[in-house]
Amino acid sequence: MNLQTAIDRVSLEEAVALAAALDGKTDILEMGTSLVKDYGNLAIEKIREVLTTSTLLVDSKTIDEGAYEFQQAYRFGADIVTAMGAASYDTLAACYAVSQAQDKTMMIDLLEVNEEKMHQIADFEQAIYALHHSVDRKDKQDTVASVAEFHQKFPQIKRLAIAGGIDLTQAQALAKQGLIEIVIVGSKITKAAEPIQAATQFMEGIQS
Amino acid sequence: MNLQTAIDRVSLEEAVALAAALDGKTDILEMGTSLVKDYGNLAIEKIREVLTTSTLLVDSKTIDEGAYEFQQAYRFGADIVTAMGAASYDTLAACYAVSQAQDKTMMIDLLEVNEEKMHQIADFEQAIYALHHSVDRKDKQDTVASVAEFHQKFPQIKRLAIAGGIDLTQAQALAKQGLIEIVIVGSKITKAAEPIQAATQFMEGIQS
């Protein structure tokens, strides 16, 4: 399993410093949506510059104008870009076509995607599907059980990620379960007293 | 009926120049999602600076972290900010709470929102609900018929907007129909040979 560490809601200077410090300490460095919307492509460029080892994911959360947004994000340095599963099939197909043509990776964020919609968008073979529990939602979920249930319903989907308040215990349980390719962690690492140490704990904790 | 003119997929310099030229020639100036994602809050600030008459809408397309994204957009100068109807109810409630507290306006983009979901999110009384046909979708729609059908199903929703390839003939028909508060026009104005003249034609065409 791979660790993706999400940087969000900080200044660009702090984001770049944190990205530089986390480079190589996390498999994937996520530039969160707040940085996309606060700073635009400049933030992708600046973070790209300080990464030598970690892969860069840009959490664009594209929901329309798929080709344009994906082309821009890749052009400025992203390796992986996210689109919303809630987008139309045609938008997702446009994002996927750009990703495949550039030998890059699309991640599909399944926030608020119900089972019916999921069936309609399950055929992007190389895409990573990210189970996602909104930070704004008041109800909580059991991550391991959610993953098992999803896998049972959609066994054809080979690449899975999960996001939403994941802690070290949950990450370890997910690693043991063996169905998830990427566990996405945000504040549990970046808002820790010692972010590098926290990332290292997660990286060690998810090795099986 | 009010005209909202959307600026998208141009450089920040071109966007600012176009916004300055369109100020007062369109009721609402929309800073499109491409400008949000390409330039971030800087674009809101720069466009705000050149507007003296038109209202500024920022097409943030917020789908998570509602309070943060809305606070940021208002802080940098937006009068109206968009959230996706596809977001969770809790995210929309967070966006609405920020908007109401600051005496600003939320627009809910109904892209890919089905009837079942629409019933769940129909209670934001002061919000503007925007019917939206994705530019990525291959199928076309009859706008006047779509609006009539929506109004019949959701008569309690008082504030309606519509977006997606609207031309002058459609805009005039919508004005005559009298159900829409805001018609949103993009390339039919901004990519016209004479954008100001095109905006003026729309503004005159929708007066009833």
From TrEMBL, chains A, B:
<feature type="domain" description="Orotidine 5'-phosphate decarboxylase">
    <location>
        <begin position="2"/>
        <end position="202"/>
    </location>
</feature>
<dbReference type="InterPro" id="IPR001754">
    <property type="entry name" value="OMPdeCOase_dom"/>
</dbReference>
<dbReference type="Pfam" id="PF00215">
    <property type="entry name" value="OMPdecase"/>
</dbReference>
<dbReference type="InterPro" id="IPR011060">
    <property type="entry name" value="RibuloseP-bd_barrel"/>
</dbReference>
<dbReference type="GO" id="GO:0033982">
    <property type="term" value="F:3-dehydro-L-gulonate-6-phosphate decarboxylase activity"/>
</dbReference>
<dbReference type="InterPro" id="IPR013785">
    <property type="entry name" value="Aldolase_TIM"/>
</dbReference>
<dbReference type="GO" id="GO:0019854">
    <property type="term" value="P:L-ascorbic acid catabolic process"/>
</dbReference>
<dbReference type="GO" id="GO:0004590">
    <property type="term" value="F:orotidine-5'-phosphate decarboxylase activity"/>
</dbReference>
<dbReference type="GO" id="GO:0006207">
    <property type="term" value="P:'de novo' pyrimidine nucleobase biosynthetic process"/>
</dbReference>
<keyword id="KW-0456">Lyase</keyword>
<protein>
    <submittedName>
        <fullName>3-hexulose-6-phosphate synthase</fullName>
    </submittedName>
</protein>
